[in-house]
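Reopening this ticket.

The earlier resolution said the output was attached, but the attachment link was broken on my side. Pasting everything inline this time so it's all in one place.
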Amino acid sequence: MKQQKQRRARGWLRWTAVVILLLVAVVLIFNQQIKYYLTESYRPQITRQAIQKNQAKQSSANYDYSDAQDLSLQTVAKARAKKQPINIIGEITVPAIDLTIPIANGVDNTTLALAAGTMRPNMKMGEGNYALAGHNMANGSKVLFSPLYSKSKVGQKVYITDLKNVYEYKIYERKIIDPSEVEVVNNTKDKIITLITCDETGAHRLMVRGSYVKKMSFNKAPQQVQHNFSSKYTTGRNS
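Inline output:
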């Protein structure tokens, strides 16, 4: 009887080990797909009240982009596991390249796993240099700032919103820069938007800049822009 129990115990341990190995193999094989899904399926509930509350937290966020690491499955999973992982203050859409994601305070790894991050504290939409960073997941990915790297062109329109107003910009520059060129996120007298993401190697950065065009109330924005902001997330426009 004792030997039978020992054999059963060994058999159970072997099957457990096999199952664990299979699960590990699946995660390794589908690492990218799982990571893409966790990021792309992120649908935060955004309200005007939440944005106003989060805007007050801007000074306490981390704005050191050099601390940002390559996006790992562990980072994305950890970000999704938290009930409210990031402080969302708006949204950005580039209709021509099918890019629509949240904007959140700072550029810590958790924030950049799910959103575009502000690169300076206390920035205001439609004023000075509104600088944002986002991950490029390369290989034709459609999540985060990946389309910005693969599809953005001079002349395309960029829109950002705080749910009350929409701010329109027009891309006038697309340039590969060194990571050391941190001055590109400094404030400017001109009203511009600066979007930063990595190139495919991670050794350099893509800088996309747009000039300010106009500000409009949310319900006066182009229908495609309203659709992009409204269809991608549960935004609570009337709140």
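Reporter confirms the inline version is readable. Strands lie at 88-94, 99-104, 116-118, 129-133, 157-161, 165-177, 192-198, 205-217. The longest helix spans residues 2-29.
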